[in-house]
Design a protein that fits this description.
Blueprint lengths: L3 E8 L4 H14 L3 E8 L7 E9 L12 E6 L2 H7 L3 E10 L6 H4 L9 H8 L1 E5 L1 H8 L5 H11 L5 H11 L2 H15 L6
Parallel strand pairs: 1-4, 4-5, 5-6
Antiparallel strand pairs: 1-3, 2-3
Helix pairs in contact: 1-7, 5-6, 5-8, 6-8
Length: about 190
């Protein structure tokens, strides 16, 4: 099998690290070689967080270079735009439509770019959705990450039950029910477009 390259990008506090644990758990349970590398910006203060996940028969390095990502899972619009150069030709991006203002926007030194989703949609295979709304419906606004994992799961050849088992393994018991609902909301999401 060819190596599969997945990038998870977001802002500190959005649960990108839990998402990478769920993904790694699912892949490991199928017997693949998995490498994960996490790059933290100022993750405690809303800075960029990037996780590289590579899997296949044998993986030697976790780093994903520009133009190599098969899938980019973006938890926030601006992070999706920043990650765009890493998506390979024919790759897929799954992006939350949520906006989280970075520090330069908060301080007034910059403005948040307009029409990011439209720009991305014109260039690539994009699935954009309001994962926050789906997480709220599932009963936990913090489960945006698991909603997005559900959408991504639907776009892989990894069986549904493998994903559910990974969520059960990685999510604390007191949050499990809401996270399972969030995963299903993402897994069964269909675009209106």
């Amino acid at each position: 099998m060819n190596t599969v390259n997945i990038m998870i990008v977001g802002v500190g506090g959005q649960g990108t690290l839990l998402a990478s644990r769920i993904l790694g758990n699912a892949i490991l349970s199928l017997g693949y070689d998995v490498k994960v590398s996490e790059v933290h910006g100022m993750s405690q203060r809303g800075g960029s967080v990037v996780t590289y996940v590579k899997y296949g028969e044998k993986v030697y390095s976790p780093i994903i270079d520009k133009g190599e990502a098969d899938i980019i899972l973006a938890f926030e619009q601006l992070e999706a735009l920043r990650a765009l150069p890493y998506l390979k030709m024919g790759g897929k991006m799954i992006a939350n439509t949520q906006k989280i203002n970075p520090m330069p926007v908060i301080t007034g030194a910059a403005s948040y770019p307009e029409s990011i989703i439209d720009t991305l949609d014109a260039k690539i295979d994009l699935c954009a959705l309001d994962a926050l709304a789906l997480a709220k419906e599932a009963g936990n606004v913090k489960a945006v990450n698991v909603v997005l994992m559900g959408v991504m799961a639907k776009n892989t050849d990894i069986p549904y039950e493998t994903w559910i088992n990974a969520v059960r393994e990685c999510v604390p018991a007191k949050f499990l029910d809401a996270n399972l609902r969030a995963f299903d909301a993402g897994y069964h999401y269909t675009s209106e477009a």
